[in-house]
Specification:
Elements: H1 2-14, H2 17-37, E1 45-51, H3 56-66, E2 71-75, H4 79-87, E3 93-97, H5 101-106, E4 112-118, H6 122-131, H7 138-141, E5 164-170, H8 177-199, H9 201-207, H10 211-215, H11 221-251, H12 259-283, H13 287-304, H14 319-322, H15 326-340, H16 348-372
Parallel strand pairs: 1-2, 1-3, 4-5
Antiparallel strand pairs: 3-4
Length: 373
C-alpha cells in the first residue's frame, strides 16, 4: 500500500513538469549564484577625504589608507561634506587631516586626524576601523619623527606616536546590531506576507474554478487586477506598521526623519510586493509553483540587497542583479530614514526605482492576464 501511494505521488509530479523544474533548477541556480556573489570582505569602499594640509605627510597617510585596495579615496571640501556623503550613502567612511597637521608634527606636538565611519552596518564598521590602521602603520609613521637641529636628543620629549587618529562612528555610535537588522527585517517580513498572500490568489481562483465565473461578468481585466491588489495593499500596510511599531516599542528603534516619507515608502514597497506576488500567481498553475517562485525571489533578495552583506562585497559581474531587486532600494531608504535621517533629495532615485517596479509589475500582470485567459 505504501508503494502504491508513493507511485501515485511520483505520477502527480510527472504531471507538473514546471514544479519539477523549479525544484531541480532553483537550488542549483542559487548555489552557483551565491558561490560567486557572497563575499564577507568588500573592496573599493568609498572614503571621502578632506586634506587641508596637503603636504608630503598627509599624502603618506592617504597612501597608507589606499595601499591595500580596501578603500577608494576621493576629495571633498569640508567636514560637513564628509558627513553628508556618508549620510547619503555615497561614501562609507571619511578622513579629515587638519591644516596645521605638518606644523604640529614637526614641532612634536602629536597632531590628531579624524576618521569618520558609517555605523549603520556594525560588521562593516569593524572592518573599516581595522583597515584604517593603514594610516598609522610603521611605514607611514617611520618618517614622521623629528629632532630639532643642534639639540641633544636626550633633552627632547618625543611622543610614542607622531600623530593620533580619532575614530568617530556616525549614526549608530553604540554599533547596535538591532538598529542594523530590524529595519531590513520589516521589509523581509512584508515581502514574505505579500508574496505568499497574493502569490496564491489567482491560482486559488483557478483551482476552485471560480475564475471563469468572474470572467463572464462585465468586469474588465484591468479592474480585476486592480481589485485583486487593493485589499492586500491595505492589509500589508497595517502589517508594516504593526511590525515596525513592535520595533519601536521593544527594541527602541529610532524614529524616522519624516513620517510622510516613511508612509510613502511603506505604500510603494507594499504595492511593489503585492503586484509582484500577483504576477507570480498569474505565471503559476498550482499553489506549490507559486510558493517556489516566491522563495526564488525572497532568498536572493535577502542575500544580495545589502541587508546582510554590503553591496561593495558583491562582485561587479553580479552586482547589477542587486539593483534588479526591489528590496535593495527598500533597505537603502528605510535605513536612511530611521538611522541616518537622510535628506529627501538623496532618496529620490530610490523612490523612483520602487515606483518603476510597481508600473512594470502591474503592467506585466495585466498583459499576462490577457495573454493566458
Amino acid at each position: 500500500m505504501i508503494g502504491a501511494v508513493a507511485r501515485k505521488e511520483l505520477l502527480q509530479l510527472r504531471r507538473d513538469p514546471r514544479l519539477v523544474a523549479l525544484v531541480v533548477v532553483m537550488p542549483m541556480v542559487l548555489l552557483v549564484l551565491f558561490g560567486i556573489a557572497l563575499k564577507l570582505e568588500p573592496e573599493n569602499v568609498r572614503l571621502a577625504v578632506l586634506d587641508e594640509d596637503r603636504s608630503f605627510f598627509s599624502s603618506q597617510i592617504k597612501t597608507g589608507l589606499w595601499s591595500d585596495g580596501y578603500f577608494a579615496l576621493y576629495d571633498v571640501d569640508s567636514v560637513d561634506a564628509i558627513v553628508n556623503e556618508i549620510r547619503a550613502g555615497r561614501a562609507r567612511a571619511g578622513v579629515h587631516i587638519p591644516a596645521d597637521f605638518s606644523r604640529a608634527l614637526t614641532d612634536n606636538n602629536q597632531p590628531h586626524i579624524t576618521f569618520y565611519v558609517d555605523g549603520t552596518m556594525p560588521s562593516l564598521t569593524t572592518a573599516m576601523k581595522y583597515h584604517s590602521d593603514g594610516a598609522t602603520d610603521d611605514d607611514v609613521m617611520g618618517d614622521m619623527y623629528f629632532l630639532p637641529p643642534d639639540v641633544p636628543s636626550s633633552s627632547v620629549i618625543i611622543p610614542e606616536a607622531p600623530f593620533k587618529m580619532d575614530t568617530e562612528v556616525l549614526f549608530n555610535p553604540d554599533e547596535k546590531e538591532t538598529w542594523f537588522f530590524l529595519p531590513g527585517v520589516v521589509g523581509v517580513l512584508m515581502m514574505q506576507v505579500a508574496l505568499i498572500l497574493t502569490g496564491i490568489s489567482v491560482v486559488r481562483e483557478r483551482e476552485k474554478q471560480t475564475l471563469e465565473q468572474l470572467l463572464v461578468t462585465p468586469l474588465s481585466r484591468t479592474s480585476f487586477i486592480i481589485g485583486k491588489l487593493v485589499p492586500y495593499v491595505f492589509i500589508a500596510l497595517a502589517e508594516f506598521y504593526f511590525i515596525l511599531g513592535g520595533g519601536w516599542l521593544i527594541f527602541d528603534l529610532p524614529g524616522p526623519s519624516s513620517h510622510v516619507l516613511l508612509f510613502l515608502l511603506a505604500f510603494i514597497y507594499v504595492a511593489v510586493m503585492i503586484s509582484l506576488g500577483l504576477l507570480i500567481s498569474l505565471f503559476s498553475r498550482t499553489q506549490q509553483q507559486a510558493m517556489f517562485m516566491a522563495i526564488f525571489i525572497i532568498v536572493p533578495s535577502i542575500l544580495l540587497s545589502g541587508f546582510i552583506f554590503p553591496l561593495e562585497a558583491i562582485p561587479d559581474t553580479v552586482r547589477p542583479l542587486s539593483y534588479a531587486l526591489p528590496f535593495t532600494y527598500f533597505v537603502d531608504i528605510v535605513r536612511g530614514l530611521l538611522i541616518k535621517h537622510t535628506a529627501a533629495a538623496d532618496l529620490v532615485t530610490d523612490f523612483l526605482c520602487l515606483g518603476a517596479f510597481v508600473v512594470v509589475f502591474v503592467g506585466a500582470s495585466i498583459h499576462r492576464f490577457r495573454k493566458t485567459l
